[in-house]
Amino acid sequence: MVKSDLDCLQTKLQLGISKCLLGEKVRYDGGDKRLSFAVNDLSPFANFHSICPESAIGLPTPRPTIGLYQTDQQSVMMRFNDQQIESDIDHQMTLFCQQIMSDLSNLCGYIVCANSPSCGLDNAKVYDNEREHLITLADGRFTACLRSYYPWLPIEDNLRLANPDIQNHFVIRLFALQRLNDLNRHGLTRHALLTFHSRYKLLLLAHSQPLYRQIGPFVAKLDQFDDLQAFFVQYRERLMTLLSTPATKENHTNVLMHMQGYFNRYLTGQQKKSLTDTILAYRRGELPLSSPMSCLKTCLEQYPNSYLSDQFYFTHYPKALPSIDNGVT
Ligand code: SF4
Asked: Which end of the chain is more exposed for a tag (fewer CB within 10 A), N or C?
């Protein structure tokens, strides 16, 4: 038996989100950008920590539009697009970001609102000082601060999350970091860390073989760390960097073949061939990942193996999470 959904998390996902994505009418035009994936799909599994940076610095709704402007080669500043309006919103936003960041340390991820000068992710427009030319696309001010303060944190925006592969990849990272944060909060032990890593091995292998080969020797040196928290900090960075690499069909095929090896001695020649054919059909794109996964789960039911059944590869997030196939396509 694979571990049940109840085993997936000790606590709900602690998920940061741009307030307008929850349907709150805080945008400059008095509207919102309600994101169904968050409001409907993730909400049973998440505690949302919603922030509207522009409201937080005291701006009203509705409000005049804001933009990012390159003032010299080095600096980008935030100001109202109407230059007649005098304000120090650039300074206020800087102060707000500095003050709020330390409150976000328990988050396992963040969903930001695309294109916003405050919340955009790589897609906020930066103009020249006269607003005649688009200079570049960049992070919004809040998002830039978030990324710099928490470089390991999974961050996506509402537009990118319309892509099922990106959505799936994001959710895998959310659950991994939440589980790791849970360990840290509920009393970190060497045994707990080793167990966590062991249960993630096959999923890590599916995401990056080179980084998997690096993180293993690092974990093997756990006993050399007197300070467990120092190990945790480095492990978290390595783990989340590894998982930020999207899984591939080739890597999944290796993992599936590896798992098949655990059952070969129990299977008839015909059963082995059938399982191999299913895995290779997935590899060729003729079947979804769920097909060989389902075959392997059946094998696991018949021939229990505690190492495999503990693997988060099978249950990296709850099956009940709607709209996502519980596995990388
Ligand atoms: S994009 Fe960010 S700043 Fe703009 S309304 Fe949404 S939460 Fe507020």
From this structure: N
Reported residue count of the chain is: 329
Tell me: the pLDDT tens digits for 262-279?
Answer: 999 999 999 999 999 999
Q: How far apart are CA 43 and CA 163, in angstroms?
A: 19
Cα 300 from Cα 311, distance rounded (Å): 12
- What is the C-alpha to C-alpha distance for residues 295 and 56, in angstroms, rounded to an integer? 51
DSSP H or E run through 27? none
Separation between Cα atoms, residue 4 and residue 314, nearest integer Å: 10
How many angstroms does the Cα of residue 85 sit away from the middle of ligand 1? 20
Torsion of CA 21, 26, 28, 30, to 10 degrees: 100
CB 106 within 8 A of CB 47: no
Q: Compute the distance between CA of residue 90 and CA of residue 68 in angstroms, rounded to an integer.
A: 9
pLDDT tens-digit readout, 8-31: 566 899 999 999 999 999 999 999
Asked whether 18 lines ligand 1 (CB < 6 A), one says yes
Residue nearest to atom 4 of ligand 1 (CA): 27
Q: With residue 125 as reference, give the H or E element that holds it.
A: strand 124-128
Burial class (CB in 10 A: 0-12, 13-18, 19+), 229: exposed
From residue 9, how far is each of 15, 127, 183, 216, 232 by CA, in Å? 14, 44, 10, 24, 19
Distance CA 287, CA 207 (A): 19
Cβ–Cβ under 8 Å, residues 329 and 19: no
Per the prediction, the chain carries an average pLDDT of 93
Question: How distant is the alpha carbon of residue 106 from its chain centre?
Answer: 14
Q: What pLDDT, on the 0 to 100 scale, is given for residue 327?
A: 47
Q: Three-state SS for 46? A: strand
Q: Which residue puts its alpha carbon closest to atom 6 of ligand 1?
A: 20
The answer to whether the beta carbons of residues 92 and 57 sit under 8 Å apart is yes
Rounded to whole angstroms, how far apart are CA atoms 149 and 98? 9
